[in-house]
# Entry
Amino acid sequence: MLSFLLRRLASMAGVLFCVLSLTFFLIRLAPGGPFTRERKLPPAIEQQLLAKYHLDGSLGQQYVEYLSDVLKGDLRLSTKYRDRSVRDLLAQSLPLSALLGSAAFLLATTLGVWLGSIAAIRHGTVSDSAAMLLALLLISIPTFVAGPLLVLVFSLHLGLLPVGGWTSASSLLLPAITLAGPAIASIARLTRTSLLETLQAPFLRTARAKGLSENRVVYVHALKTALLPVVSYLGPLAAQLLTGSIVVETIFNLPGTGSFFVNAILNRDVFLLGGVVLVYCVLLMGMNLLVDFLYTWLDPRIRLEA
Amino acid sequence: MKQPISLRPGLLSRLFRKPTALASLSLLLAVLVAAVFLPIFLSHDPHLTSLQTFRPPGAEHPFGTDLNGRDLLARTLEGARISLLVGFTGAAVSLLIGTSVGLLAGYAGGRLDALLMRLVDVLYAVPRLILIILAGFLIDPWLQRNLASFQGGRWVGYSKIAILILALGCIEWLTMARIVRGQVLTLKTLPFVEAARVLGQSPVRILLRHLLPNLSGVIVVYLTLTVPAVILDESFLSFLGMGVQAPQASWGTLLSDGATALNPVQSHWWLLLFPATAMSLTLLALNFLGDALRDSLAE
# Structure
């Protein structure tokens, strides 16, 4: 167990290193720089700015210096939001994104698993087809269409919920639904396929023969095993939802982390991009590790090997 | 591990017995035909502005007009052309890269396999949007240079679309590579591959003549699911203003215009409704088709 954990942590550190290097070189090699403006800066001033942000010298030098700073826990200053540290920007925006993301995650897992199990248990009936049609619809409607439509109906026409901004708990409802939509569909489809397969398994005959009630057989014994593929989808999903989404943040006017992913690239804000990618990558790998541990609990036959 | 499945004869007849597959296929064909041929019969140019701004749908403009008085039907059809073009060619690029990487990694094994699969792992760990945008930035100057000198620069106006296709194709291949590799790993232990090797056939011939045909089923199914994914990503980038550039329109740019035109005072609902319906129906049909194809292969 301990050796598994140690090996996984080592490989995670390796991936993290590669990802950070990749983003650094990609954004530094992209045309334009953090201080490229339509009106060209005088060379002396640009040089000074570059020196201030440690972006002078050769690319290799900049890279090594940046990596050593990150290792020391210094994510550096943002080049766009002057004099604000990346750590500061993340600390301010992540809590909101994480809150919204958790709400969406909870919504997606409960509704998705529920929809998928109904479809599997009533396989071949109208409820099955209806559930799967709904799932495909949710996948086919992009968030940037669903968001404005929800606002139009629930906020503008019915006046039930706030249009946008971050004022009360109810202002998170529409963004969370928008964010959860496609995830509900994917989870429902995965749950249905997996549960259909599990329902044929011999161990359920044993469970029924023991005299367990049908509900217990399906919802406890079968569903627990059937959730394995769903759980491995949940790892990346959680990382994605918790770090925010630019679409939802733009539509609902929320100050979250998601918009940094795109804006940092557009502003060639090297260190802010590095920061958000770092957070995303750590979350993703942490969640995947968690998924592996969940596996052993869901299916005791599985042993952890790195 | 399930047996690898190839495209066997009888697949199409099994596919056409499913009403959803038939309906999806007809819908897709209808959209394709409308996108390509309907503009010939329409009197409105998708780029022609007029004073008739924000007209609701009527006899003159069946889908209404937008902020600049352009006919929305003509714009939606142009959007269909561009979105479908990007979707299909982008998926084709991803197919080419993903299959090659998967075949190579699975068949070669050893160091090369480990290296390629670690590359896939690393690329998976970076948010996809970031990779697509950065890939676009890196391709941009190279493509501009080449397009300017190619055939007297007549394709320069299409550079944004070409960048989208290349960038999306270069990023969307990861899952395809993993699936193909997994299948190759099972296939290459089967007796017929060994027989081919004993007969002294070259690795390239074994890959192309013996392995690839056996992989066709998986590849086709996954390709049907990649097309809608690429269309979604394209429209997403266009929605953010980083995809197709005005005056050209894709479904993404139209949806972005439609979303900004929604306000409590005057709701220009048609600007969102028509492009959204067109796009969602197309994606729905593609997804249905992919599902039906997968089921027919498994039967």
User: Anything to note?
Assistant: Chain B has one domain: 5-44+82-269+278-298. The mean pLDDT of chain B is 84.
